[in-house]
TrEMBL record:
Similarity-based family: Belongs to the acireductone dioxygenase (ARD) family.
Species per Swiss-Prot/TrEMBL record: Marinobacter panjinensis
UniProt xrefs under Gene3D superfamilies: Jelly Rolls (2.60.120.10)
Catalysed reaction, written as an equation: 1,2-dihydroxy-5-(methylsulfanyl)pent-1-en-3-one + O2 = 4-methylsulfanyl-2-oxobutanoate + formate + 2 H(+); 1,2-dihydroxy-5-(methylsulfanyl)pent-1-en-3-one + O2 = 3-(methylsulfanyl)propanoate + CO + formate + 2 H(+)
Protein name stated in the entry: Acireductone dioxygenase
Amino acid sequence: MTTLSIFDQSAPETPRVVTEDAGKIASLLAEHGVRFEQWSTRDLPADASSDDILEAYAGEIQALKDECGFQAADVISLNPDNPQKEAFRNKFLNEHVHSEDEVRFFVRGQGLFYLHFGDQIYAVLCQKNDLISVPDGTRHWFDMGPEPAFTCIRLFTNPEGWVAEFTGEDIASRLPRYERLAGAAG
């Protein structure tokens, strides 16, 4: 289930707020300019290609492009049998920012976004049906867990795709990882 856990940076062991209420999650995230919505998903075959997925959601993707100026969309999918899963996980685990909004729509599975606002960390466990748009310049990181299983549509204003600037802060290492938060939500 989609979950938002809010931590104080000075006490990262235990969240001070936990909610599974999608409306409350959207409202709390909107206070920081983060867009959170839940869309209906399509029934697609397990072996649907990236093109099949992009075509199935062509209307929603075009609406976001028209509204927000995105230039490109692609699909990222990872499964537990991927031999590079640990390298992919490590790539996204350190706090970073982007010069464009980071938009993800979960077609399948789940992943955990950590958003750093002042002295608070918002951990958003996104699931199938969730759209999240993290504004450019927001300090954040992503944890897909040790056995990643997700498919997301990504949108970009930069046609080169995902480009990160790492902050060098170690805050990500002090927060509970996916294993603890996703387990607590299940």
